[in-house]
């Protein structure tokens, strides 16, 4: 863990993989069950529909096992912690693990609340396929600043993939670090853009065995769609519908042409 | 129930009726109280506002009787089942029945959860003016596939109107089956489009004594607005604002010209 | 309280103040914690982001003190009253008062429910910096119709600023009444426009010691953004993204040119 991060994956293959996974998501109508925060529910559902998938959003504890087991992947976002979600989250994770469904953790604002930091840590013990977070959230969880080395060490010690999103996205597992440079600043001016994009990470993880490649491919797709949308939009208001349109129409060739992964 | 479904209504009158009801909805500022799922609340409110009505959305059990009794109609959508809604739904239905307000049931994803199947059945005992569902939801409730004959039989035995939405909408009561062919595939790429459209069914049921005609007219309005919006939109993102604009400007002449009801 | 309302403020300075506060909001990335209704959460967050601020939305009682104390201002909107919010609201208000953070009360639909009328009255005892309401809500709280005189008397007796929104907004404290004439009828055709705009009142109250001027400046900003958006939009659907775009790009010169305050 003291040596420099190295990558044994071929980063240049990610754009083509992203196109292939997007086409399979559409063809197979991948189902994602998302336990997500109140402000992200509608946009998460609309992002999954625009990508060609099928969302469900139930947070009722007695319904979550049925919905999780009929889905292809699970997203757990900690942005809203009401009593239903606090009970539903561990049940959903247990169901996903029992049925060998991939699941993804998004510890929103974990730096702001001891309650959710504790819950996020207990979720991490369930070994999510991917932990998607920003630098502040990572620092709260790892108790150190986010660097390529620290996220790789964290990924290794927790048996997960860390997808650290920012101006450049860093995606690490125990042995590799990938960088995705696509995206646009307007994506930070729309609430739940990151939360909703994480649903695509979950969908891709259902289609591809390498969670680090699946995560990088999903972040590439949202980044390229964001760039296309920013070109169409006049600001953050028109950016959001333009983003869904771009995702709906996105084709593999554009991903290969525009993708910047290293 | 073994004979072929027959219609004693004049289907050709539905487009003109739809225009008349839409104008009255705007003039009378019809109020709909919607107990609906978390992902549908905002769009349901915006659809009712764009149509000229006044939405309210409270799900607090101790507030639901007051909000229901001051509204003209009630929508009950089972897509989110938290503890407040489980308590509020039967109270709202009882209030609507006591005050002779029309009410409409939307049993979202009832095929996916035994909990909501049971709740949906108990709601049905309260004889909704209209049951709005898709083919999978109908099949779970009726324990048989949706056909013109089976939905008519179900409507008769449950004392309701069945509005089965799909590529073609089928609306049946004990004696009639109407088909509404308007709509556009992009409507299935936006979350809560069906849920929100059901609020218009409730509003029209407050204005017109024949629930089957009111339901067909409301589905016609949403279908025509969807066609106009699809013509303007570049994908599912821009479709949603275009749909609200189209509904806001929709006039009776367009409904008569574009309506396809049989 | 029987004399005619008089203003000792210089209304003509409000447009320049609004521009200055908007620029500071962007530069200082003002944080607003919003306990708001389910239908308003997403739009409130997007409005604050478009204005340059940072929203948080948690309603979990055990998290609200941490989120409130790290924010610059608090918004309390009573539109959704679930058990979490009923517990969280007094805790958030107490935290804001302890930390001397400005807070704003929006008693949505208080005229429709005895439960929330009672809660709104107990919130008012916590002396919000601003009470934002419409005429029906004011009448329920004050037990008299809204007039410049009655809102000023209410503001004086409750130690608050009353911001009464409508075709013309009236903003009163014990000694002053300001009128903001900017705005557009399409703003009433989009749900949560008023709720979300109140978050900007809270943000401006964090930046400026005079709550009446901060409230008037915030309503001026939303009114001018609404006018610009209405010029771009084809109806209430396209109005909402156009509003966020307009707010994102709004500059001090436009506020001075277009502002109508007296």
Automatic annotation (TrEMBL), chains A, B, C:
One of its GO terms (molecular function) is ATP binding. Keywords: ATP-binding, Kinase, Magnesium, Metal-binding, Nucleotide-binding, Thiamine biosynthesis, Transferase. This is Hydroxyethylthiazole kinase. Substrate binds at residue 192. Belongs to the Thz kinase family. InterPro entries: Hyethyz_kinase, Ribokinase-like. GO terms for biological process: thiamine biosynthetic process; thiamine diphosphate biosynthetic process. Catalyzes the phosphorylation of the hydroxyl group of 4-methyl-5-beta-hydroxyethylthiazole (THZ). The gene is thiM. Its cofactor is Mg(2+). Its EC number is 2.7.1.50. Gene3D superfamilies: 3.40.1190.20. Pfam families: HK (PF02110). CDD domains: THZ_kinase. ATP binds at residues 132, 165. Pathway: Cofactor biosynthesis; thiamine diphosphate biosynthesis; 4-methyl-5-(2-phosphoethyl)-thiazole from 5-(2-hydroxyethyl)-4-methylthiazole: step 1/1. It catalyses: 5-(2-hydroxyethyl)-4-methylthiazole + ATP = 4-methyl-5-(2-phosphooxyethyl)-thiazole + ADP + H(+).
């Amino acid at each position: 863990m003291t040596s420099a991060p190295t990558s044994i994956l071929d980063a240049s293959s990610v754009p083509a993989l992203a196109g292939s996974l997007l086409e399979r998501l559409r063809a197979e109508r991948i189902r994602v069950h998302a336990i997500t925060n109140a402000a992200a529910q509608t946009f998460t559902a609309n992002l999954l529909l625009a990508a060609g998938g099928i969302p469900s959003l139930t947070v009722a504890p007695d319904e979550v096992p049925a919905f999780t087991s009929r889905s292809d992947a699970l997203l757990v976002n900690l942005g809203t912690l009401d009593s239903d979600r606090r009970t539903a989250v561990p049940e959903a994770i247990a169901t996903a693990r029992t049925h060998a469904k991939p699941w993804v953790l998004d510890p929103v604002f974990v730096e702001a609340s001891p309650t959710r930091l504790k819950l996020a840590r207990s979720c991490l013990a369930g070994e999510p396929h991917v932990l998607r977070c920003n630098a502040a959230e990572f620092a709260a969880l790892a108790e150190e600043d986010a660097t390529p080395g620290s996220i790789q060490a964290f990924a290794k010690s927790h048996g997960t993939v860390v997808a650290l999103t920012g101006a450049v996205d860093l995606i690490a597992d125990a042995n590799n670090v990938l960088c995705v440079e696509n995206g646009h600043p307007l994506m930070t001016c729309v609430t739940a853009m990151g939360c909703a994009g994480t649903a695509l990470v979950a969908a891709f993880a259902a289609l591809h065995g390498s969670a680090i490649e699946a995560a990088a491919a999903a972040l590439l797709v949202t980044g390229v769609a964001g760039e296309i949308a920013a070109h169409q939009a006049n600001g953050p208001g028109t950016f959001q519908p333009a983003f869904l349109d771009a995702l709906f129409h996105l084709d593999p060739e554009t991903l290969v042409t525009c993708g910047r992964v290293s």
